[in-house]
Amino acid sequence: MNKPLIEPKAPPDAAAEPFFSVVMLYWNSGRFLAEALDALEHQTCKDFELILLDNGSPEPLDDAVLARYPSLPLTVLRSESNLGFAGGNNLAARSARGEYLVLLNADAFPEPEWLAELWHAGQEHPGACFASRQLLANDPTRLDGEWNVYAASGLAWRKSHGQPLAKGHPTEREVISACAAASAYPLSAFQEAGGFDEDFFAYMEDVDLDLRLRLLGYPCRYLPRAVVRHVGSGSTAVRGEFSMRLSHRNLIWTYVKNMPGAFFWLLLPAHLLVNLAYCLAGALTGRGKLIARAKWEALQGLPAAWQKRRQIQQSRRLSAARFARLLEWNPLAPLIKLRFR
Fold first, then answer.
1. Domain range summary for the chain, segments of one domain joined by +
2. What distance in Å separates the CA atoms of residue 213 and residue 328, rounded to the nearest whole number?
3. Among 72, 89, 93, 73, which residue's Cα sits nearest to residue 27?
4. Percentage helix, strand, coil for the chain under 3-state DSSP, each rounded to 5
5. Which is it for the CA torsion 310, 311, 314, 320, positive or negative?
6. Cβ neighbour number for residue 210 with a 10 Å cutoff
7. What CA–CA distance (Å, rounded) separates 79 from 107?
8. b/e per residue, 116-136, with b = 16+ CB within 10 A?
9. What's CA 272's distance to the chain center, in Å?
10. Measuring CA to CA, which of 117, 153, 193, 220 is 20 to 30 A from 127?
11. Is 130 helix (H, G, I), strand (E, B) or coil?
12. What is the DSSP letter of 166?
């Protein structure tokens, strides 16, 4: 069991509890760290603490970089091993003192008003979770994503990924899921949901968490004025074997755990068809063995996923019909979003 080493660098008013606890995981992301810390130092809203977890990174944290930001209310935690995105954030969240838990990737650079926009939204919609507008770091005229879409078939993707900024959704709205590269959750809600499912390790763990939060009755809102620039896959390869395997495995677990009531059985044929289509596509593109391995791992984990499903559905406070209205029902939507990849 990993016991974090806590190295607090407390601000002068550390006795006061901050409104935000910003959590950032560090894993082979040294080339982004200074820019990320600089962006946080320039936030107009100063009511936050920063919890930085060295998640067993082979590339150690550079203390010289941290020393450039003495005014940041920074606490450094260290894990002996890589706990994944799920386990790492859970570990860091246990040290959080804020009313809101804010997740920020080390390769995501928020605009100065980012936390201020989250603060205003938190006052207007207490108890809600929030998704940020993400721009491509190397081309801020294009979107990296707005929120996570979850389809009735169990597919998930980032809304507007790769599209021109002008095509983005212009106003605040309710959504089903926030991309955890830059998202905010009431800390009490995060704790009630049990945090991230550490069996996922990484990939789709944010969708799974958000679906559980929706089922518990916590809304999620997209904030187009809360803007970050996001590199994306800053510490892992885009569409690498590791990410593909976990994504295809976790796709099944997310559906099994969270699709409520009769909709589980009604939509199960569509979910099975989607997984079969992925297997066939993998066979045609030379990744058949990789995807088959992922699906086999998912099947092996079904008993545990089903047990989690029982607990999730027993504590559900949102009706199945209300949940269904948050889903993407257009069967062509996944094909449309491929145009921008």
1. 7-230, 241-338
2. 18
3. 89
4. 40, 20, 35
5. negative
6. 29
7. 20
8. bbbbebbeebeebbbbbbbbb
9. 25
10. 153
11. strand
12. G
Least confident of 190-194, 220-224, 263-267, 336-340: 336-340
In the chain, alpha helices (H):
30-41, 63-66, 84-93, 114-124, 187-193, 205-215, 241-258, 261-285, 288-300, 302-314, 320-324, 333-338
Band (pLDDT 50/70/90 cuts) for residue 239 is: low
Contact present, 221 and 122 (Cβ < 8 Å): no
CA dist list (Å): 74 to 7, 9, 92: 9, 5, 12
Tell me the pairing of strands 74-79 and 7-9.
antiparallel
Percentage of the residues of the chain whose pLDDT score is greater than 70: 91
Q: What is the CATH number of domain 7-230?
A: 3.90.550.10
Structure token digits, residue 131: 């998704």
> What is the token pair recorded at 331?
């069967």
Any idea which residue has 């212009």 for tokens? 170
Tokens, residue 262? 């009769």
Residue 299 C-alpha from the chain's centroid? 24
Residue with the two structure tokens 């019909």: 321
DSSP conformation letters of 218-259:
--EEEEEEEEEEE--SSSS-TT-HHHHHHHHHHHHHHHHHH-
pLDDT at 299: 97
* 43, two tokens: 């936030």
Matching residue, tokens 């949901």:
193
Residue 186 pairs with which residues in a beta bridge?
Answer: 100
